[in-house]
Amino acid sequence: MAKLVLGVGASHSTLMNTHWEETTHKAEAERFRAALGAARDRIAAARPDVVVLLGSNHFRGFWLDLIPPFTLGVGECIASGESGTPKGPQNVDVDLARHLADEVVEGGRFDLAFSARLQIDHGQSHAIQYLLAGLDVPIVPLVVNVFAPPLPTFGRCEGLALALRDAIASYPGDTRVAVIASGGLSHRLPWPDWRDPHGEDEDFMVQAWLDGRENWSDYDVRRRQIIRAAEAAISPEFDDRILDLFAVGKAGELAGYTSAAIEAEAGNGAQELRTWLMMAAMMDYIPAERLAYESVPEWLTGMGVVVLDPAAAPAAH
């Protein structure tokens, strides 16, 4: 049967690519980038045959005309390439992806959407760029809706993760599988609740999310201006508390959080912690090693990297 060999959680920010030179917290930025490199080396050492890639949607591949809570890529996968991230077709392990879909859906575990022609954005491709560079390993991408409420609960995310874990275990052969969660930690994007926008900028954003499927680049200049004008809202205290839970094997406590509680404590961008919870659940909540945590206001985000390594986990787990 297939084997889960490593889990990684890592924050992302396209501002790393587009505004690196303008970053004044350069030491923090360098330490975070170095941690991504260290995580990439850990992935390489684990020798995965495939990576299950858990990430969010930033209105590049999914729009308000149709946003499932969870979508598994089971065929072609195209990266949108915004802000210097990888662009174009990505290598997908179609056999494993379709096995997961069959086991989870037809096995009665979870009603999961799928796409045979999935478009991803930096919610996945940032991880491909920094964590899989040069590794030539296929992915199985899963997109989690974290920005267009109503959002799947943290508990439902955990349930899907456990179903995926079991489906991986039932895959024939000796395939080695790594899991990457991309997103988080605390940050607040200047994005409205699409159901209740206030003001010209928020009206513009919602209109872009409705009409941008065929021409998202037409909206992108102003979108970036709105994001660049936002003030950072990072909570190192929250981030430390979450990272401490991962360190002691208690990341499952995230399943008890509500969307409202996450937003109040850590901003709407912290809703991406759903992917971290899912990764940890798939790895049976073994204790994590923190490779970095840096607060980088210029990127609006608390930037963290953790690794969950079964080979290094205490025997009790």
UniProtKB/TrEMBL annotation:
It holds the Pfam family LigB. One of its GO terms (molecular function) is ferrous iron binding. InterPro entries: Xdiol_dOase_suB (IPR004183). The lineage of its organism: Bacteria, Bacillati, Actinomycetota, Actinomycetes, Mycobacteriales. It comes from the Bacteria. Residues 10-303 form the Extradiol ring-cleavage dioxygenase class III enzyme subunit B domain. Keywords: Dioxygenase, Oxidoreductase. This is 3-carboxyethylcatechol 2,3-dioxygenase. CDD domains: PCA_45_Doxase_B_like (cd07359).
